[in-house]
Design a protein that fits this description.
The chain is mostly helical. The protein has 15 helices and no strands.
Length: 342
């Protein structure tokens, strides 16, 4: 009992230290977003001017930088929570909306909406709804194929790669036969925070808030799901129902991000793993907030790199994120192999 108390106390201290450091990194990356661009500016001045431009409904560089910085925070946090929910509910350490085909399914549905007239309804109603349907269909196909292959972590990921490749390739056809502009879907598939206005991060933030609240309230269920369905039943909950709800929330978050900012991979994979590695624990009450902050920091930092390092060329943020995510995926797979041998 004493050892358990010591473990809990050590985990709690690690959490607060890690959260403090992660929040500091997030603040610094947010300020860097405001400061760096074609012209380097005082980030505090940009913040002040950006808020004033938003309140007065005027447009300027300060407002654009502030809206882009906010988008990096909410999109990164949303992808991190989506990845955490998928990893936990499937008990698959390689779970991620990008790897499981959700993002590509959402991309295919979004591309179809490009043929519709540009309007507020198309952007904020039709496109997110289409992305959600596409993401869910892709995820269900991934699970269906994986179930035929044994439903192991590896089979789920390979099924997701197959489904994702199919939907990504399918998303190219409408460009030739409907839009005749291949560059549009290519840019969307790379993921970018360039095209942003305040309504987009607000819409994603609302979905993120609702999903975060439900996840925190269901932290005991999430901890139980990560171990066994029997533990969920001991809590008086239906594991199948909870899994459907939680994976649906993951699909909603990922699909909203794709609908507004294109495909951004690996944030959902890496953020929860960074949190678990630092804490040495998988307790949802610690992993959820830490994953959110890590995801927000990761995307904010990589977006700063994307728009500054190769200036005047701005690299899609998904390219930079993948340079971090790919080694993370390799490290996870090596760790899984060593654990299996042990």
């Amino acid at each position: 009992m004493c050892a358990l108390r010591v473990y809990v106390e050590v985990t709690r201290r690690r959490f607060f230290v890690a959260l403090l450091i992660a929040l500091l990194i997030l603040v610094l990356s947010f300020m860097a977003q405001l400061a760096f661009g074609a012209v380097t500016l005082n980030p505090l001045r940009v913040l002040e001017d950006g808020l004033r431009e938003i309140l007065t409904a005027t447009t300027g560089i300060a407002r654009y930088r502030l809206e882009r910085a906010l988008a990096g925070v909410v999109v990164g946090a949303s992808l991190a929570l989506s990845g955490y929910l998928i990893q936990t509910t499937t008990r698959n350490p390689l779970g991620d909306p990008y790897l499981l085909g959700i993002s590509s399914g959402a991309l295919f549905a979004v591309v179809l909406t490009f043929a519709l007239p540009a309007s507020a309804i198309t952007l904020f109603v039709v496109r997110p709804f289409a992305a959600l349907i596409g993401g869910i269909i892709a995820y269900l196909l991934t699970l269906l194929i994986a179930s035929k292959a044994g439903m192991t972590p590896t089979s789920i990921v390979l099924s997701g790669v197959a489904v994702g490749t199919f939907f990504y390739s399918a998303s190219l056809f409408p460009q030739y036969f409907i839009l005749r502009d291949i560059h549009k879907v290519f840019a969307w598939s790379m993921g970018s925070l360039v095209v942003v206005n305040l309504n987009k991060p607000i819409a994603i933030a609302l979905a993120l808030t609702a999903c975060t609240i439900y996840s925190c309230v269901s932290r005991n269920v999430l901890n139980a799901l990560s171990i066994s369905d029997d533990f969920v039943r001991d809590l008086g909950r239906d594991p199948s129902r909870e899994r459907v709800i939680l994976t649906a929330m993951a699909a909603v978050l990922a699909s909203f991000c794709v609908a507004y900012f294109g495909v951004i991979g690996f944030v959902g994979l890496a953020s929860p793993h960074f949190a678990r590695r630092l804490l040495g624990s998988g307790d949802a009450r610690y992993i959820i907030p830490l994953s959110l902050v890590f995801g927000a920091s990761m995307l904010s930092l990589t977006d700063v790199v994307a728009k500054t390092v190769f200036y005047p060329i701005e690299v899609p943020v998904n390219v930079i994120v993948s340079l971090v995510g790919a080694p993370t995926l390799a490290a996870i797979m090596v760790g899984m192999r060593r654990h299996a041998r042990g």
